[in-house]
User: Fold this.
Amino acid sequence: MQLRVPAPPEPPERAGGGRAERRRSARLSARQRAEATARRLLALLAPLAPYVRRLAPYARRLKPVYPRPGRTGWRRWMPSWRQWIGGVLTSFGLLSAFLVTAYAMTDIPSNLNSYATQQDNVFFWSDGTPMARTGWVQRQAMPLKDIPQDVRWAVLAAENETFYTDPGISVRGITRGLWQTVGEGDTAGGSTITQQYVKNVYLNQNRTISRKFTEAMIALKLDNKMSKDQILEGYLNTSWFGRGSYGIQRAAQAYYGKDVSKLDVSEAAMLAGLLKGAGLYDPTLSAANHHRAEERWKWILDRMVKIHKLTPQQRAAYKAFPEPLKTNPLYNTGAQSDYLVELASQYAKKAAHLTDQQFDLGGYQIYTTFDRTREQALTDAVTKARKQAKQKDPGPAKDAHYGASSVAADGRILAVYGGPDHRTQGYNESNAATVPAGTAFLPFVYAAGLEHGVHKTRGGPATPVTPDSVYDGDDNIPVMTPEGPYWDRSGKKVAAHNDGNTSYGKITLRQALARSVNTPFMQLGMDAGLDKVRQTAEAAGLLSDSFGPQVPALSLGTSTPSAIRMASGYATFAAGGTHTEPYSVRRITRNGAPLPLNTPQPQRAVATAVAQDVTDALADSFRAAHPSTAAARPHLAGKAGTAANDTAAWYAGSDDSVSTAVVVYRMNLAESLEPLPLQGLAGTSADSVPYRLWSAAMGLG
Assistant:
């Protein structure tokens, strides 16, 4: 019987022995894996062994032996025809492998050139006609479906007639392009439309071999990824046509003053010719350019016949060269519309929640509320007034400013006058809060008293006020509080004064507003509460930051509303007491797709009856000052306004659903924002300049 003796335990490893052993094991494992991989590779290549053995003699024969036996002279050192074929095939194989690798490693860039995606923004009048265009570039993307077939084929005939059948590149063109690049030759021609599109939106215009090669690789990939129509649409919207315009839509407007959809074949052929180089083919630049442009125009039309996109009979109809406009009608800076664009841009970004960066990228169509007819009438009237003032008294006239605005009862800004020239004065006079409202502010005090009543005792109940409530209309009467006279900080009693220090005795509030008597309203403001006066004016449309200290003079118009805000406030009364914040944009789209827009909603400012009482008093004021006009237009309501120290003259009023406010003032912007005395610039009470401008804006002639 044998006993099994267990094996003795292995001696413990020395420090670090385990790690060394693991490294050896790892090396063995790696070697084993490599050997296994080699075996698998040999197994895969085993079926090719017979072919390799069969080709071996030929391969050995390709090996050059020099000097070659059996040859004499220089022929001893020339490769054989087999060696030539082998070299060519090897080179072709290596080149193919390089191109396949390069194609696989080339990615279509995700970021486009900024100028390739940037567009301009188009602003429209309220009737839908174009008003202005802004932006760093002149471009508006146009869907291919909106570009006529004749226009597309004129471009294809000029640039790439095989566009719909080629693979996105032209080997012949690339070769010619490389030769031109190396030889610094003429750069025209050679690239397909796909290649040109790649250059426009992904690359740069540098003439280098690497750029040309990258362009070809991206073009091949793009041709497999995008449809031909998508590529053509992109190309037509990003190509440079001269005159500051990118894309076929802007080119049509820049050269022919029409949308691309209105182009005929002849005009399209002229524009297509510009793609070869607008600096050489814009016919308006020189006689030589005109000759080149006409020759290329003929050639493109003939090419369209050759590729069967135009019949000979149709071609025969186009004999006269389609002369473009002499200048680009899209440039329109410095005009009154620039002030409108400024207002609309500010509102559009706020209401559509667009950042400056998004808006500057362009592509937006902004449909404004501005009425073209009203704007023209207002601009013509102010231009005439400026001219007359300079002729009559050039000294004060050089510092003259005319702010004006018409606002509808639903908040739409219909017209503004911003200044003589936006290029020299970006300061918008219609939106400036720099001069006091003066007695044009009295309707808001009247509305506050009618809406909230008055307090005869401190903390007591409010007593109702009506249009027939009687107040003291005398001049120089003290302003009273429930406790007694009001004292200012210098320790003097505050007294109210009328224009010309005229006293009117006891007078109703309606009569006082119609006759612009100051003293009743200064006291009414104290009785109703200056906080209520300010609250009512703000609810009607005036901005809180236009108000100064809450002292008795507030009721006589120390606030400084802009013409837009004053017109908006009067529009609240015309709207029956509901106020809608003034706005200048009614709709926004981007490349035709609508954007959500926060349009202001009407809010109740004062009771309907209060608004009607204010309107009635303003109608009385208008009838008293202009009886013949009031007889013809019974719905007119308005009043003049003067500021202390003769620093501003206003006229504000309504006709049914539209209100207009006009202010005339003097200010030397180079020195300060302090208003200067008018010195007769606003005319007389019988012939007021603000009223004449108001009449023109309201269509009264």
Notes: Confidence is low (pLDDT under 50) at residues 1-17, 181-189.
